[in-house]
Amino acid sequence: MVNSYHWNSRWAFRAGAARRGRRAARQRLLFLVQSGCNIGINDGVVAVTAPFLLHSHLMPAVAASNLAKVAAMASASLFSFVVLRLIVFR
User: CA 90 to CA 88: how far, in whole Å?
Assistant: First the structure.
C-alpha cells in the first residue's frame, strides 16, 4: 500500500508534492480506507463469481477460478481508480 500511495500521489494523480499537514493526513487516511474497500470488493467478487461459474459447468474449474479472479481485478481496479480520482486525489 505504501508503494501504491507513493506512485499514485506522485505520478498517476500528481497530488503528493502539494499536500502537507492536515490535507496530507486526510489523503493518507482516505487512501487506506479505499485500499480496504478495494480488498473487500476483490474478495467479494471472487466469492460470488467463482461458485456461480463452477456450478454452471460452463467451463473447467481452473478456467472458472481464473475468470472470477479477472472479474474481481477489473471491478476492484475500476472502483479504485474512480475513488482515487474523485475523492482521494481530487
Answer: 6
Helix (H) or strand (E) holding 3: helix 2-7
Confidence of residue 30 (pLDDT cuts 50, 70, 90): very high
C-alpha triplet 9, 14, 15: angle, nearest 5°: 65
Q: Smallest Cα–Cα separation from 55: which of 47, 46, 63, 64?
A: 64
Question: What distances in angstroms separate CA 7 from CA 4, 42, 46, one per listed residue?
Answer: 5, 21, 27
C-alpha cell of 60?
Answer: 473447467
Answer yes or no: are the C-beta atoms of 27 and 89 closer than 8 Å. Answer: yes
C-alpha–C-alpha distance, residues 11 and 73, integer Å: 21
Q: What are the tens digits of pLDDT across the range 41-57?
A: 999 999 999 999 999 88
